[in-house]
Request: fold
Amino acid sequence: MLVRALYLSAIWFAISLFATLIMGSRLRRSDSTLSILWLTAVILIGNFIAVFTFGRLLEIFGLSLLAFGFGLYWIIRLNDWNAPGQVTWTMTLITTGLFVIYTFMLTAFTPLNPLSFIFALLFFFLEAITLLLALAHMHESLDVVCRVQWMRLVDKLEPVPGYLPMVSLQVPAYNEPIEVVQKTLNSLSQLNYPNYEVLVVDNNTPLQSTWRPLEEICRQLGPNFHCLHLDQWPGYKSGALNFAVTQTDPNAEIISIIDADYEVDPNFLRELVPAFADPQVAFVQTPQDYSDSTGDIFSESTYRGYKYFFEVSMPSRNERNAIIFAGTMGLIRKSVLEEIGGWDEWCITEDAEASLRILKKGYQSLYINRSFGSGMMPINFEGLKKQRFRWCFGGIQILKKHWEALMPWAHLVDPENQLTLAQRYYYLVGGLGWFSDVFNLLFAFFLVMGALFNLFSSPIKVRPLTDTVLIIPAVFLVLHILRFIWVLRNRLRVSIGMAIATMYNFFSLGWAVTLACIQGLIQREGVFLRTPKSTTASKAWRAIQVTQWETAIGLICALTGFLAFVMDPNWRTFSLGALLYWQGSLYLAAPIYSLLSLSREAALGAPVRVVEQGKPMMEQLAARWVLACSMVLIGAFSLIRFLPSPSGLPAYARFLPIDLSPEQVIGGEPEATTPAGMTATPTIPSTATGIATVKVESANCRAKPRGGAERITILYKNQAVEIVGRNDDVGNPWWYIKVPNSDDHCWLWGMTTTLNGTLEQIPIIR
Amino acid sequence: MQKNLQTEVSQLLEEAGQFAQQGEREKAYRSSLKATSIAPDEPLAWYWRSQTAPSTEEQLMCLSRAYSLDPNYSDTKKELRTAVQTLLRQEPFLAYVYETEEFYQVRSGRDLLINIPKNRTFEIPYLKKSPGHARPAFHWLTLSLLALFLGGVGAVVFSPIAAFHALRLQASAPSRGDRIRLLIVFILAVVIWLAAIPISWLLLIRFYPS
Reply:
């Protein structure tokens, strides 16, 4: 029943999502009647398919009632979404929930030895957490595309007559090329606002020849421009910015951080400052934009990748007053910054960290989705990788520092914590979301292991590859990829090709994010990523070297998937191969983008040599640690074979969910009714060494002891058959049986039967 | 003795004030200089000396000293900021020396040691925060959660220890927040224990394959 319910919900999920992909962004009204009608329609269409394929009327009816009730709840809760969004969200939740229950039952009741069980349990928790994160992504996507009422959306602020508070614009610089900073400062001198100062804060730039010219530029630009060089200053950028606050004009009420490579629109302050007329508003953020795209795929997809955050995540967060202060192109109230104790000098994403502390105090934030300036993107893939590493590392630092403040009970522990539940959710999911890439790598590892064990017919088993376990995750994967492409297309207005390129650009950084997550957890202080050193003059070879670990992982996945299918071609190994190929493609995207970034590098000139601040984290060393951990895991896996496996079918195996074959799902297999002329219990000779009684509704009897092998016949519940032999894997038994009323023989999976007789007396057939 | 000293310093400062009013800057400076030499811990003396100091460097040094002795005197803060700004216009170099909760001590490009007020709430840096009262209970709770992921048997043992620590520390909890925190640890420990029972049973029965 569970499996049938799971398939039915997956059909609902697919129908609702496909409909959302088509009309989710077009339907611009929220109407409960329409939502209820749409919910009913999706349920009925799904039921129609199920009735004619694998379903049972009573079960379908019961589950439909539950789904309808659940859907009604979400229609009421999400009353500012349109019908497709509400129904898709309901169906996603149902399918995810049922799949988690199914995988738990499969983990719990499959006859495994203790070590296998521990690995299976770990895998289950991994899967469950990943699915929860996927739910969060789904919610965010639907929230921005299917939302029809925006409560906090502001396009343009009304000017407040006479309100022109002083603004201190702070430009942190570290080893910046002078021509880049000059452009930034020139743009700041053109600001259409009467009351501001600019403070250039250069911290720890080693060479005087680099920072001294800044002094002269400031002098030329007038008395509002000040320059400051901080030497041997602790706390990196945030340390310097904290000191800069002490040097701001005492009349300044607002502070703005502008990166040294940003050219700012003259109306930046004039348009945004009015937000601060409301004393509750503590900070305002606008999107960070980039103007140096060179038109190649790397530049364009990277640009879209940045935009994703400001077009999808930030609008969704803004609806709950949960945005992040992203530093540059944002304004922050000086008194609030002083009240929270300034920027955190430990955290390398001090801006995002500060916004959390500000929201904790109960202040308001505002996101205005209009670009007021543009900066520079990393010149090549190596730069992008290092930047993503830094952001992720900072995200994990925030999580480490504030996890308790994000818990549902946080306001009870600390009454001063005024974060709403939604704010806590967004900050928590924002931090945990980074771990998706860690889980992705672990999945790739488990898949590779599974394929290798299958390839070498190893008795080591973690979780049986049932049909359901192969079909449903594939459905999830395809639907979530489609959802991602859809949201990219809708919010960023890009072609399908560019949406796919952007998606791969995201995933290509998975390895860097994984390293940052691990480092963030174990390292106390800020680090930066040091990629492998190149000893060659060839740029192409250097581009590959920078991504050598991603390339290796990608190739291992793709090759294992290919071999798994070629050595034993059937639909199961095909599914396994496809999954592995997908995983491999995510990692192989890294060297491809690295090579593609060469054209950008060539167009823009040689990369600027920036000396990173902090403690270096050697990618080579970290990768070796990951490799060592993998070896330990493989060693632990191989211990499985030395532990005793269940000698017979344990009693708990009766709780194992009954699997449905793909034929049954698509209706290619007859209904589970006893055919005419076949008695439920045929005469079995008394000399039989064992009798197997089918305990599931229907079971396939196959030509070989393997799930994907050709089906000889179907046996039905309570049907007893004579066992002639068995395979030699007691953990995964297959009975070689005599087909009732026939001279044929076939293989029946032991898990679907109960055994009468002694296992040891049944001869092993090899 | 102390009283005499105070009277003398007051007299000197009064004198310096009068000289300053009369436009006799040098005499005013000498009086305040004497005041700082006999009472080096008197912030007002340093402040007055800064007002009549012949050079920007000395003015900065005096203001800086006055500020470190009395960080709450707003005039000192204000003038210190102006003086630093003037200095930075000439030489924008500042090197870090050390910092306290209240101020930074920096060395200027002209080798002056200056104290610069932070003017912000002090927040204990994350890495210097002392472990919370509930830490032992949290420690065992984390272990039991990990153990739950690894088959549950460890969680059956560790979560009661976490619950025990939560109860034990309740009595000495220094704040209401800590009491609630410990109560939550206790509840979570019970939940983990309840989840660990069936999971560990599923693990243990696998040791008896028959």
Remarks:
- The helical segments of chain B are 2-21, 25-38, 43-52, 56-69, 74-90, 135-149, 153-170, 176-204.
- The longest strand of chain B covers residues 93-99.
- Chain B touches chain A through 39 residues (CB under 8 Å).
